[in-house]
Amino acid sequence: MFFVFYSMDYQLLRAYDNYISASIILARLDEEGIRCYLKDEYTVTIDPILSNAIGGIKLMVEPADFARAKELLDGFDRQYRASAKCPRCGSHDIVYISKPGVKNWITAIASWLFSSYAIPATQVYQCADCGNETADLPASDEESFMI
Ligand SMILES: [Zn+2]
Q1: Is the pLDDT of residue 27 over 80?
Q2: Which of 62, 99, 106, 138 is most buried (CB neighbours < 10 A)?
Q3: Is the pTM of this model over 0.85?
């Protein structure tokens, strides 16, 4: 008999502000044999506002798989960025950055006003050419929304 236990020492690989991105990455890592799960997914799905308070949906990875998971994730990012396009200027030069403080707070209000499900992220994708920012990477063939 085999049981799978989620050990307490799983490490946080990345936090997501929406369930869809988190579950896509989870599935892709899982395909690669990475032992991982989403933490706080239930809370976040039920209450998006609370998600910000508890730090989003956390992608937790087994320590032994962590280095490889991070490599895979970087690879996904590169792939995804290459296919993404800035919705404002069309540039493919999109970077993933961390945003502190006030501006994020304004984003929080804006997303609260315009969409109950668009959660403010502490990390955003920013166009290196025009500075346009989005919480989710704008993929050319996927539904995307701007904040
Ligand atoms: Zn741009």
Answers
A1: yes
A2: 138
A3: no
